[in-house]
Design a protein that fits this description.
The protein has helices at residues 138-145, 186-194, 233-245, 254-262, 303-312, 314-326; strands at 27-31, 38-42, 55-59, 61-63, 67-72, 78-86, 91-97, 107-110, 115-122, 128-134, 171-174, 198-204, 227-231, 249-252, 273-277, 292-296, 337-340. By secondary structure, the chain is α/β, with parallel strands linked by helices. It has 2 domains: 3-63 and 160-340, QueA-like (3-Layer(aba) Sandwich), CATH 3.40.1780.10; 67-145, Thrombin, subunit H, CATH 2.40.10.240. The strands form 3 sheets. The chain has a 9-stranded mixed β-sheet. Helix 5 (303-312) crosses helix 6 (314-326). The mean pLDDT is 96.
Length: 341
């Protein structure tokens, strides 16, 4: 299976640079994953495709201001440290730039010394394990010094950083937003719940591994970086009861999908608990839990495009993307949405 099989040509002007003022007014392309039949809707119409007894699974992770700009203590050179994954109270796995300047023992100062880190280890993939030194509460210092880590294809500055958070975000730890959830408003979720649809939350802290380009020619040779997830006993029970009762599990975003598929045992039940997952879903994968997916439009040749292709069929997905481009849908993080059901 070639990575190039998942390429499509996207006009740059279709890459959304700004979120809409009304989250739920985005466009929604609805596709029957079996027949490939497409409908064009508005996102708030999503409730028309949900039934009483279904379960909507949302990722409640919260994006942290993970991008830190600082200077090397010995030379004053400008450097960037991007937080990826927390290992302990003060130790983080990070992506650093420029890497050649930040070897083991290098120290970096942020905010005039309010926060300092030392490079402790160069990891096999080139990331750095760093230890931070600070007085006070790390999260409060990070809120003051860190920047919101918008994807590189968004070149405009975000005027309201809360627009890169879902309305239900609560567990801090992500380097990127679970963007399918950005379309939901609190009132829309209330309407959906009142209609008899169960809503449950899982947590997966999104790392950059999800978005890193696939550099191998054969999809099967790609290795995903691990991400931490957690599922509460309550959420696991809701998901398992829904499946047992004949309801559908509708995931909001690929991160929710990867979480519950990772936590599903051989008995077909989702287990509560926390763990790291490096699950890579591409065509040929047999879904154990998910019955429907709400997602955004993904980058060419990305692991996310491969996941949706695994769920709805590559031909169906590539046809839907061609239709979305023709209809001038907005793409990527602040763009429009798809519902595969």
């Amino acid at each position: 299976m070639k990575t190039s099989d998942f390429y499509y040509d996207l006009p740059r002007e279709l890459i959304a640079q700004d979120p809409l003022s009304d989250r739920s007014s985005s466009r929604l392309l609805v596709m029957d994953k079996t027949t490939g039949v497409i409908e064009h809707k508005i996102f708030k119409d999503v409730k028309q495709y949900l039934r009483a007894g279904d379960c909507l699974v949302l990722n409640d992770t919260k994006v942290i201001p993970a991008r830190l700009l600082g200077t090397k203590e010995d030379t004053g050179a400008a450097v960037e440290v991007f937080l990826l994954k927390r290992h302990s109270d003060s130790e983080w796995e990070t992506l650093v730039r420029p890497g050649k300047k930040l070897r083991v023992g290098s120290r970096v100062s942020f905010g005039g010394g309010a926060l300092v880190c030392e490079i402790k280890q160069v990891l096999p993939d080139g990331n750095r394990l760093v230890a931070f030194e600070f007085d006070g509460i790390f999260e409060e210092i990070l809120d003051k010094l860190g920047q919101m880590p918008l994807p590189p294809y968004i070149t405009k500055k975000l005027s309201n950083k809360d627009r890169y958070q879902t309305v239900y975000a609560r567990n801090k730890g992500s380097a990127a937003a679970p963007t399918a959830g950005l379309h939901f408003t609190k009132s829309l979720l209330e309407e959906i719940e009142k209609s008899g649809v169960k809503i449950c939350y899982v947590t997966l802290h999104v790392g950059l591994g999800t978005f890193r380009p696939v550099k191998v020619s054969d999809v099967r040779d790609h290795h995903m970086h691990s991400e931490w997830y957690q599922i509460s006993s309550e959420s696991a029970e809701i998901i398992n009861d829904t499946k047992r009762s004949g309801g559908r599990i509708i995931c909001v975003g690929t991160t929710s999908c990867r979480t519950i598929e990772s936590a599903c045992g051989k008995d077909g039940r989702v287990a509560a608990g926390s763990a790291d997952t490096d699950i890579f879903i591409y065509p040929g994968y047999s879904f154990k839990v998910m019955d429907g997916l709400i997602t955004n439009f993904h980058l060419p040749e990305s692991t996310l495009l491969m996941l949706v292709s695994a769920f709805a069929g590559k031909e169906n997905i590539m046809s839907a993307y061609k239709e979305a481009i023709k209809e001038r849908y907005r793409f990527f993080s602040f763009g429009d949405a798809m519902m595969l059901i």
